[in-house]
Amino acid sequence: MNIASTVTLSNGVKIPQLGLGVYKVDESEAKDTVLSALDLGYRHIDTASFYGNERQVGDALQETDIPREDIFVTTKVWNDEQGYEETMKAFERSIEKLQTDYVDLYLIHWPVPGKFQDTWRALEHLYEQGRVRAIGVCNFQEHHLEKLLETAEVTPVVDQVEFHPRLYQKGLLDFCREKEMRVEAWAPLGRAKYFDAPVLQSLAEKHKKTPAQIILRWELQHGIITIPKSTKRQRQKENAEVFDFELSPEDMNEVDEMNRDERLSKHPDDFPYNQS
């Protein structure tokens, strides 16, 4: 495995298992952040309309010498853009900013009550048109997925959720595996809030790696797609250097047991949808 290594989604599309997330990357830094990652070998960039930096990601896609078809681009429809017609319009805005003819993966950002099923119909339509190569969701718990699957003609290929050792959502992971959906981790490093945890410190010393690298390796070995964010080239490089070692089953279990069901963000059932 290496930084460009892919996993195959249920519809046959290949996605690099390690990517770059650009949440909270300021538009003044976003283009250079993406170009730096691409130069280091990253081939998976994850943005969203809500992030406010789709245009700068698009500028990077235009500026790089790497062919568009070799870069996997994800974006998302935000909560106030949901519903069938609204989502179709939101997609046009995203495509225009990204300066591309298609998106590799288009996601529903949050399960807005009363709207996400209509939003999904729009994603299915875009998928049928060939304007997106794959479609999925973010922040859906099992009950959201079950409700979506009642009417969906296409099963989501990905559920992107908050996932890190303090929030090891094993029940959701097992559910998604059963439905042939991949789990993708946002905030995969827990926003660096517990790098000093004894388990991570011990494993970092054992493998001569950093706590961040231990966490990313743990996620990769669980089959998780992971998109750590960094604007710093050295940190991007460090995050990619996780393919030259392996955690043992015992190591994996130690990290599993760090779970506290601790969220950095709102639970999807408690998200303030009316304020978004």
Automatic annotation (TrEMBL):
UniProt keyword annotations, A-Z: NADP, Oxidoreductase
Gene3D superfamilies: NADP-dependent oxidoreductase domain
GO molecular function, one term: oxidoreductase activity, acting on the CH-OH group of donors, NAD or NADP as acceptor
Composition skew (Basic and acidic residues), residue ranges: 257-270
Compositional bias segments (type: Acidic residues): 241-256
Site positions per UniProt: Lowers pKa of active site Tyr: K76
Entry binding sites for substrate: H109
Start and end residues of each stretch annotated as Disordered: 230-276
All copies of domain NADP-dependent oxidoreductase, residue ranges: 22-259
UniProt record similarity statement: Belongs to the aldo/keto reductase family.
UniProt protein name: Aldo/keto reductase
Active-site residue numbers: Y51
PANTHER family: 2,5-DIKETO-D-GLUCONIC ACID REDUCTASE, NADP-DEPENDENT OXIDOREDUCTASE DOMAIN-CONTAINING PROTEIN
